Amino acid sequence: MLLFARAALALGMATLCLTPAAQAQSEPQSQDQNVFVMGGPFTTGYFGDAFFFWDDHYESNFFAGIGYQHFFHHYESFKLGVEAGIGLRQGAQTSAELWGGLVAGLTEFSFGDITITPSITAGLSVVTDTIGVETDRADKLGRDVPILYYLAPEIAISHAAHPEWETFARIQHRSGGFGTIADIDGSNAAVIGLRFKF
């Protein structure tokens, strides 16, 4: 067992020593990973209503979150990856949200130095408690809904001078998926955010 521990330690030290050299010889990174922050108000309407951002249908409740994406598959302008994040749902009630899922995006819409990237994330969302109109809907349903589907359509914008930075707008949506988990359109927040790609 001691011999195994020594071998593992030696292998670990060798890996640490060789990693910088290997990175120096490799090609530059293609910005397959990113971190982001975002925030915005919850809406009183349903998922489709959240797209009409100019309508005055917002709650006093607010969402703020951070997340991470890693893209592992590229085909021409299409990319596929995973996303995970954690957020705070703040208002008269306070709730935390944890979500994760697959994210798919396109990167083919360029106008001069501006690139517009539509994407969508789909997965699961877990919350510690409901908030705002989501609480009313859960009460009508007659049970708690801590786990629901997560869906986040998004439009991101970047500039050629700093392609590592991206601003975006998305809908932070939780629902029962047409009754497959629960017959509920849980919550919808209209958020804006900033992303750093590396």
Structure description:
Residues 1-24 form the signal peptide. With 198 residues, the protein is of the alpha+beta class. 17% of the residues lie in helices and 57% in strands. It has a single domain (32-197), classed as Porin. The protein has two helices and nine strands; from the N terminus they run αββββββαβββ. It has an eight-stranded antiparallel barrel. Strand 7 (147-159) and strand 8 form a beta hairpin. The longest helix is centred in the N-terminal third of the chain and has 24 residues, at 2-25. Mean pLDDT is 87; it is low at 1-28.
Q: Remind me, CATH topology? A: Porin
Largest sheet: 8 strands, antiparallel, barrel
Give the helix level as a range of percent.
Answer: 10-25%
Query: What is the annotated CATH architecture?
Result: Beta Barrel
Strand content: over 45%
CATH class value: Mainly Beta
What is the count of structural domains?
Answer: 1
* Distance between the first and last residues' Cα: 40 Å
Protein name: Outer membrane protein beta-barrel domain-containing protein
Keywords: Signal
Organism: Devosia elaeis
Signal peptide: 1-24
